[in-house]
Design goal:
Length: 439
């Protein structure tokens, strides 16, 4: 009897060991944006379909995420099995051999349904190296009630001068209502995304055709001076510390008259669960400057899920990537949160869906903003680079953040605009010379 009991116990231990061995744990690095946080809450659906795969999340602020995943993938550290990365990183990292091509996403994943501009941005030689989770351009979101109270009208295609006039009239600092919220937190994907897109509309460019930095040119001085002056007059205090999430919170709590940022924010500012101004939001295209009426900043971005070449769990990782980015996930979010809250900007079928169009008053202008972006011609003068709110070269991550620190300091008042531009010119020239771009 004792022998039989011992044998049964041994079999039980072996079975448990076999089960433990069969379970795969995926470590996913992601940004702390609302859509990504929502995805984590919905992963019970994935767990039911894949009981042998366990998920571990590393959720980080945007600047920290970029630093951590860049270091890990460049050193082949292998900490993560799935990365949340942007359209900037994908083609650069794919060409370095740091990402796996996504050939195993399954039959249910319809690549042909992806919006061409988004699909092309994350493909190299026709192969997909990351799967878009949501796509975006940038646009104006504003309080219709405050605009009416101030006696201003914001047209569908505003100029920066029209935005500035409206923002100043909508400002009431005594009630902590600020006319405009714009990114000020330093980072190539934080304040420099907004400022670069803005500068594009003023005719500024990062580099001329021979890769010489252009911060000493009048277009940059006009753009940065306009930005700093507008924020000082109509922006919130401490704006140099505010990025996407901080400005979202300010707008949702009724403290911003105008917020110009990523189109993906529209579902959050109109969600009555989180936003006090959900029924008071109007939309317009990204403003134009003196450079030309057709240039709306040319911001085009997607947060994507990619798989580092260092992972030893590629098959399980592709199962998760497919689950999180196929059409069925969109329907899952709609069933739980409503159509207005599904991840936007990646699939043609979403914009052909009458339920989404009805639920999301921002759907058309989001698509219009994305279609208006021309990342191969980001500004008026010719340039040797592509990218709307960024420059698609490996060095930009470091240079963009360093320049962002100069501009954030100008906004904070710790240096003059001329000093910030001079510092940007010097440091960018140094790095581009070191990189061999300038002879």
């Amino acid at each position: 009897m004792l022998t039989r009991t011992l044998l049964l116990g041994a079999v039980s231990v072996l079975a448990m060991a076999s089960f433990a061995h069969a379970e795969t744990t995926l470590t996913i690095a992601t940004v702390n944006n609302g859509d990504m946080v929502r995805m984590q809450k919905l992963t019970d659906d994935f767990a039911k379909k894949n009981p042998d795969i366990k998920l571990e999340w590393v959720t980080l602020e945007e600047n920290v995420l970029r630093q951590r995943v860049t270091t890990d993938i460049a050193t082949k550290g292998g900490q993560y099995d799935i990365l949340t990365i942007g359209t900037y990183e994908v083609p650069i990292w794919a060409k370095q051999g740091w990402l796996l091509s996504l050939d195993g996403l399954g039959k249910e994943y319809d690549k042909s349904d992806l919006l061409p501009a988004i699909s092309d941005a994350v493909s190299v030689d026709g192969k997909l190296y990351a799967s878009p989770f949501y796509g975006e351009s940038a646009m104006v979101m504003y309080r219709k009630d405050l605009a009416e109270k101030a006696g201003v009208k914001i047209p569908e295609k505003p100029t920066w001068d029209e935005i500035a006039e409206a923002a100043k009239k909508m400002t009431d600092k005594s009630s902590e209502t600020y006319g405009i919220c714009l990114r000020g937190k330093a980072g190539w994907g934080e304040n420099m995304a907004l400022i670069t897109a803005m500068a594009n509309t003023f005719g500024a460019r990062w580099f001329d055709e021979k890769w010489h930095p252009q911060f000493d040119q009048p277009e940059w001085k006009k753009a940065l001076t306009f930005y700093v002056d507008l924020m000082k007059e109509a922006g919130p205090p401490g704006a140099s510390s505010n990025g996407f999430n901080e400005n979202l919170a300010l707008f949702q709590t009724g403290k911003c008259g105008i917020w110009i940022d990523a189109t993906v924010a529209a579902s959050f500012v109109t969600n009555p669960k989180d936003s006090k101004v959900a029924d008071k939001v109007g939309y317009a295209l990204f403003p134009t400057g003196a450079a030309g009426a057709d240039n709306h900043g040319n911001w085009l971005w997607a947060w994507n899920l990619g798989i580092p070449a260092s992972t030893k769990k590629a098959e399980a990782a592709q199962k998760f990537v497919s689950w999180a980015t196929d059409q069925a996930y969109t329907e899952l979010v709609a069933s739980k949160e409503g159509w207005a809250n599904v991840p936007p900007g990646t699939r043609k079928s979403l914009y052909a869906n009458p339920e989404y169009d009805k639920a999301a008053p921002f759907a058309k202008i989001t698509l219009d903003a994305m279609n208006a972006a021309n990342t191969s011609k980001p500004t008026v003068k010719p340039v040797p680079y592509t990218g709307g709110q960024f420059v698609a070269i490996p060095e930009f991550q470091g240079i963009g953040t360093a320049v962002g620190q100069q501009f954030s300091a100008a906004l904070a008042g710790s240096m003059k605009v001329d000093q910030a531009l001079q510092g940007a010119q010097q440091l960018t020239t140094r790095e581009m010379t070191k990189g061999g771009y300038i002879k």
